[in-house]
Specification:
mainly alpha, about 80% helix
C-alpha cells in the first residue's frame, strides 16, 4: 500500500474523530469529573482551561483519558487516587478512552507516514 493512501486515510480518520471527541467532551466529561473530584490533576485541568473553547472540555477529555489509561503513574506522582478511577463505570471509561486512542493513533500514523514521504524523496 502506498504511503500517500495511508496518510490520506489517517487524515480522514482524524477529521472523522473530531465530532466524536466533541460529543464525548460535551456530554460525558462532567460526569467522569464527578468521579474524580478528589484528583488534583483533573481539578487543576478543569479550572485552568475553564474559560477556553467549549470550556476546555476537549482538553479535559484528553486529560481524563490519560488518567484512566495510566492511573498508577498519576498516583505515583500524587495527582490521582486509583480507587477513584476504579469506581468509574466501565462503559463510561470506554467512552473516554476509545475516542482518545483512535484520535492519537490516527495522528501518529498520519505524522509518521508524512515524514516517511518527505524523507523518501
Amino acid at each position: 500500500m502506498n504511503l500517500e493512501f495511508v496518510s490520506i486515510w489517517s487524515a480522514i480518520f482524524v477529521v472523522l474523530s473530531l465530532p466524536i471527541n466533541f460529543f464525548v467532551a460535551c456530554v460525558k466529561v462532567e460526569e467522569v469529573e464527578g468521579y474524580l473530584k478528589y484528583s488534583s490533576f483533573v481539578v487543576m485541568f478543569k479550572y485552568m482551561f475553564q474559560g477556553g473553547f467549549f470550556d476546555g472540555k476537549v482538553k479535559r477529555l484528553f486529560a481524563v483519558a490519560l488518567v484512566i489509561l495510566m492511573p498508577r503513574v498519576f498516583q505515583w506522582r500524587g495527582l490521582v487516587l486509583v480507587d477513584d478511577v476504579e469506581n468509574i463505570p466501565r462503559s463510561l471509561r470506554l467512552w473516554m478512552v476509545i475516542p482518545f486512542l483512535f484520535t492519537m493513533f490516527s495522528l501518529v500514523v498520519m505524522i509518521v507516514s508524512g515524514l516517511l514521504l518527505i524523507y523518501r524523496c
